[in-house]
TrEMBL record:
<feature type="domain" description="Serpin">
    <location>
        <begin position="37"/>
        <end position="342"/>
    </location>
</feature>
<feature type="compositionally biased region" description="Polar residues">
    <location>
        <begin position="7"/>
        <end position="17"/>
    </location>
</feature>
<dbReference type="GO" id="GO:0005615">
    <property type="term" value="C:extracellular space"/>
</dbReference>
<protein>
    <submittedName>
        <fullName>Ovalbumin</fullName>
    </submittedName>
</protein>
<dbReference type="InterPro" id="IPR042185">
    <property type="entry name" value="Serpin_sf_2"/>
</dbReference>
<feature type="region of interest" description="Disordered">
    <location>
        <begin position="1"/>
        <end position="27"/>
    </location>
</feature>
<dbReference type="Pfam" id="PF00079">
    <property type="entry name" value="Serpin"/>
</dbReference>
<dbReference type="InterPro" id="IPR000215">
    <property type="entry name" value="Serpin_fam"/>
</dbReference>
<comment type="similarity">
    <text>Belongs to the serpin family.</text>
</comment>
<dbReference type="InterPro" id="IPR036186">
    <property type="entry name" value="Serpin_sf"/>
</dbReference>
<dbReference type="InterPro" id="IPR023796">
    <property type="entry name" value="Serpin_dom"/>
</dbReference>
<dbReference type="GO" id="GO:0004867">
    <property type="term" value="F:serine-type endopeptidase inhibitor activity"/>
</dbReference>
<dbReference type="InterPro" id="IPR042178">
    <property type="entry name" value="Serpin_sf_1"/>
</dbReference>
Amino acid sequence: MPAPISQARTPTAAKSKSTPRKPDKGRFAQQAIEVPLWLQRLLTPLDDGHLPGNMCDKPGGFHSQFKQLLSTITQPSKHHTLEDSQYGSNSYHFLERYVQCIKELYNSELESVDFMNATEEVRQKINSWVERQTNGDITNFFPANSIDQSTSMVLLNTVSFQGKWKMPFNPKDTQRGVFWTCKDQSIYVDMMTQSGRFDIANISNPPMQIIKELTYEKLQEWMHSESMKNIATKIYLPKFRVEDESILKSILKSILNEINFISYGSKANLSGMSGNCDLFVSQIHHKACIEVNEAGTEAAAAIHATTVSLSVREFRINRSFIFITEDTKTKSVIFMARISLP
């Protein structure tokens, strides 16, 4: 299909505290938005804090390569913006080499704040930063009492994506259509339609049967299948705007271990940040919203009309689906969302 037109904004934050809390039970929602690259981006500075050496001294290492990847994806463009911020307690000492390293590698500043005596003011300050970076789409990122006096550090990462369809949908063709939310229940939604030639491939295994095994390799196989053929197709795609918010305590441990960064809870070693071993990650807070419509978030472009033969194939997205935004240069997944209720 053509490059997606969507608006997606997501801030993600990690908090370092002095006392662990029990993880929440597993969470499964009708709408789920994943931002794997940006979650890894958020956690990468923690790896600097995990290792005693200065990662800036290793130009051929993971961090310099990861910086290059992000630079390629977010090079000056009206479609992508990426911002970072870190807030550290003014009562806690952070090593200068760590501060300089994250600034050099990720253009991230560590701002000193008073979590102990001005907790609410700091919370509002952080929320205002998130609101500005997401152009007001995400407000009150940290709700009341979510930051307390024991907080030592907050790491923030926001990413915004605005894109246009390669071939926009004509709003005049949008019509009400049926969308099945489950086997025997349906709703009416605004269904965009467009006819043209698109790269289409049949997947032998329905994703709803192997969703738990949706690995990166499987995802790449689906998206870059050699069986894709350029076929005259009429597409039916629902307009949607979805939001997803989660405290990733329940999967934090597996995430950190999976990407070989740091240990979870009191076993963590972030001595590279301060020289001490009394910091650990207590929480990762994620919130995202994605909006997809006929033309995009910018001024509508000229509508592109395509004429196809009568023997056109239909691609009707009228039940749960996975929506993916990918950087075609690096084949990096920017956003991935599961949509069950447009």
